[in-house]
Amino acid sequence: MGRMRENPRYNVISMRVSDEERDHLESLMKTTHKSISDIMREAMEYFSVHYEQDGLNRKAA
Hints:
Number of helices: 2
Order of helices and strands: HH
Strand content: under 5%
Number of strands: 0
């Protein structure tokens, strides 16, 4: 049996990408030595941080 994880991930999300987008992801995988899942998690975190900052800047204006 595999090792138990503290925060297991059970949810799977899939998406369609173009050939160019897939090539770009594969290039990122090679340069960063990360999985597509890790790259997408980082992209979500980056988007969330910048989306929140943009929202805060709009409210302050």
